[in-house]
Amino acid sequence: MSDIPDSLRYTAEHEYIRQTDVDNEFIIGITDYAQGELGDVVFVELPQAGDSFARMDVFGTIEAVKAVSDLFAPISGEIIEVNAGLENDPALVNGDPYSGGWMVRVLASDPSELDSLMSASDYANHIDS
Amino acid sequence: MSFVPHSDADQRDMLAKVGVSDVRELYSDVPAGLLLERDLDVPDALSEWEAMRRVTELAGSNPDLVCFAGGGMYDHYVPAAVDHIIRRSEFYTAYTPYQPEVAQGTLQVIYEFQTMICELTGMDVANASMYDGPTATAEAAVMARAVTRRGRVVAARSLHPHSRKVTNTYLDGVGAELEVLPYGSDGLLDMEALRSSLSDDTAAVIVGYPNFFGGIEDLEPIAEAVHAAGALLVVAADPVMLAVLKSPGACGADIVVAEGQPLGNGPSFGGPVVGLFAATQKLVRKMPGRIVGGTVDMEGRRGYVLTLQTREQQIRRERATSNICTNQGLMALAATVYLSLVGKSGLRQVAETSIQNAHYARRRLVDAGVEVMFTDAPMGREFAIRTRDDSQVVLDRGVQAGILAGVSLSRFNSLEVGDGLLLAFTEKRTRDEIDRLVDLLAG
């Protein structure tokens, strides 16, 4: 059974988004379910700080040994930090998707977009269906 | 087992299945005027023996010429063992590995090939090979744009014209155009023109090493200028010359490409040949083509895999780094066998003898009053001359004398160098042959 924390919001493409301590700043990564489906992650291609994305734009890619997936922005905003640790240790996404395996920190341009994302129970239903 | 792919019975079954009574009905949509309503105009079939006799006759009309033609393809000696080994059935029928891990022998050869290309170029990673030198160059241009996220690609005018042309074709597909930098009076890249051309949108600068005229570019200041502008340096090398030149990697190249034909492959009227492609470790994820990696299996034994396949089209689809999903397996094998046979010192001897022959020829030609171009540049195994008569006339005269007296420069308008001949020298040329060439050109 994959881990789906109640406190997060989710996309149908298996990204999660987490509110930080700072207003309008969010952390984005991929879910425990997604990392399990991909298998051993060998590379994560991330954008640069300062890049901007609209909701559901591709902001990066994630590579497993024989699969590659796009990463979709759950909300619109500007990248303020990327997880540099993934460059040398992409397996953090497998081992610790919700903490050490985070991908980008964004400044949301329209936080109301969060309302359109899935809750934990919606997402649990989504991956069961 | 029958080797007839579809017998009359098979054809009848297939036609019945699709509800057609005759194969011709399958062509009913082709307008009548486009159908050839007669037999092909070809001679009657010959028996095997008659065919052999005919082909031998035709082969006999090939003149056996002493070759001074180069310009990217060179007449080096290919040891007999190369052909013998590549014709072993285990190798000869093996295409690029699509079910790679069961073809450990093929993977091992490619791994060793990559290792040798890395040593030769001074780079960290080489791929399993490309189609030829020009497509390898074009892929480097496309890759540099992806790495730098910049648009402009610039090449020295003295880069091989075929490589410039193919690169331009590739760039056309992404809405860009190859820009060209002039050479100075010595035929080498004009550094002032380079510096003023570089901008914050320059992705790559491509130079030949040696350049098309045989001149040896000073790569280090070029690399320095290119890197200062945040662009990549792509070096298109002559792999034999790399045995004696400072490696492009040591000079700061980011990507090295080459026509690999001089390594154990015949000129064969222009192909098949093999492109070499190597880069720094930092750029490996943007490289085109197949890459073999070494690993260990569950019992700790050495094994080989196709690695980083997520770059490739079968996985990444339209966002793949390149559309190449193959390599030049047999030619890369020939290069690997060749390099294994001659070894490091053997390749150096090949290069040194070729260079000595070129310098002997140049001295003799200068003494005989022939105008040699770009004598101020350091030179390897190749150089250009002016001819007194039209170069094509001189080439025709050469054929009469049993000599292929170089490559006509008038074939390459984009070089902006006018008429003349490009002369190339290998370890196969004897002093007597060179003297005959000098007599022809000075006469």
Q: What can be said about the biggest beta sheet of chain B? A: 7 strands, mixed
- Structural class call of chain A reads alpha+beta
Number of strands of chain A: 9
3D shape of chain B: globular
The most extensive contact between chains is: A-B, 10 and 6 residues
Fraction of residues in β-strands of chain A: 25-35%
* Average of the residue pLDDT scores of chain A: 95
List keywords for this structure.
heterodimer; A: 129 residues; alpha+beta; six-stranded antiparallel beta sheet; three-stranded antiparallel beta sheet; 33% strand; B: alpha/beta; seven-stranded mixed beta sheet; 38% helix
Q: How do you describe this structure in short?
A:
Chain A contains 4 helices and 9 strands. With 129 residues, chain A is α+β, with helices and mostly antiparallel strands.
Describe this structure in words.
The complex is a heterodimer of chains A (129) and B (443). Chain A is 19% helix and 33% strand. Chain A is an alpha+beta fold and 129 residues long. In chain B, the strands form four sheets. Chain B has a seven-stranded mixed beta sheet with strand order 2-8-7-6-5-3-4, sandwiched between helices. Chain B has helices at residues 8-18, 48-60, 80-86, 89-92, 104-121, 133-148, 161-172, 191-197, 219-228, 248-251, 313-316, 329-367, 391-400, 431-442, and strands spanning 66-67, 125-126, 152-156, 178-181, 202-209, 232-237, 255-259, 275-279, 291-296, 302-307, 382-385, 403-404, 407-408, 421-424. Helix content of chain B is 38%, strand content 14%. Chain A binds chain B through residues 42-43, 45, 61, 63-68, and chain B through 285, 309-310, 315-316, 319.
